[in-house]
Design a protein that fits this description.
The protein has 273 residues and is of the alpha/beta class. The protein has a domain at 171-247 and 256-273. Helix content is 46%, strand content 13%. The strands form 3 sheets. It has a 5-stranded parallel beta sheet. The relative contact order is 0.12.
Length: 273
């Protein structure tokens, strides 16, 4: 799972600490949240971010450097300072930078992030990812905010993250995994008509009564059936991707409820193995 620093509430930290102690295969990736802060018109200081890392009661699997949106020079400066202060952040290559910097990044880290892709037109984004990963040459690289599931089998990055599992609750659909590399969208009208065999089979795997989705209130937030279904679908996809193409899909969350949904989906599916 992945969470950005601005969303790391005391409650979330306590739950992550508990999961960290109980789950052998659990991995938590911390994002600095610079993009989140930038969109909100706020800034995160380097001292603030470093102090947070020092006080965190557990060590994340990996954590990214504090990037400065639109300023690769300032981002590199932050990274250098963090290294001097004894931290081991993952550096971030940003879309538009010279590809030669990627080799420099691997001199100090075995894992880098590739960012700046959000908002880039689809055709340019795919070309950018292709160029960057060719330069990476099989080393560990994480595609930040990369949600194009259909391209994962082609690119096979070491890891990526997505908040797409939350998209359905915002736009009125939920998603299941078809066990063949695709997420299938389901709208309320599909449930009110007649779900397909494939859809019913997925709901059975997730231990979810699809008939609940006939109720309008189950298509809103909280612990609604629409969110439980999407959480299970994306957790299932993540497990399949790691087994089949060795790509780790980190599912991003920003609230305590979202963390509960993802963890519940994970523990349910782990128990069915």
């Amino acid at each position: 799972m992945l969470c950005a620093y601005p969303y790391m509430s005391k409650q979330i930290i306590e739950k992550l600490y508990k999961i960290e102690k109980e789950e052998e295969h659990y991995k938590f990736l911390l994002d600095s949240g610079a993009f989140t802060a930038f969109n909100a018109g706020k800034t995160i200081t380097l001292d603030e971010y470093c102090t947070f890392l020092e006080k965190l009661p557990f060590t994340p699997w990996k954590y990214f450097t504090l990037d400065v949106i639109g300023d690769p020079v300032a981002t590199q400066k932050n990274y250098d300072i963090m290294i001097k202060r004894g931290f081991t952040p993952a550096p971030i290559f940003t879309y538009g930078e010279d590809l030669s910097i990627i080799d420099e990044m691997y001199k100090t880290s075995d894992f880098i992030g590739i960012g700046g892709l959000v908002g880039v037109p689809s055709n340019k984004m795919i070309l950018a990812v292709d160029s960057a990963l060719k330069k990476v040459r099989g080393r560990k690289a994480h595609l930040l905010g990369f949600t194009r599931v259909e391209y994962l089998k082609y690119f096979k990055p070491y890891s990526c993250d997505s908040s797409s599992w939350e998209g359905g609750a915002r736009f009125g659909f939920t998603e299941i995994y078809n066990l063949k590399g695709r997420m299938i969208k389901i709208k309320r009208k599909d449930i009110l008509k007649k779900p397909s065999f494939e859809q019913i089979a997925a709901f059975k795997r997730y231990n979810i009564d699809y008939r609940k989705l006939g109720k309008k209130e189950e298509w809103s937030g909280g612990l609604s059936t629409i969110r439980k279904t999407s959480a299970n679908g994306w957790v299932e996809l993540a497990g399949h991707a790691e087994r089949k193409i060795k790509t780790k899909i980190f599912l991003a969350f920003a609230t305590n409820t979202a963390l509960d949904l993802l963890y519940d989906a994970y523990t349910h599916q782990k128990g069915n193995k």
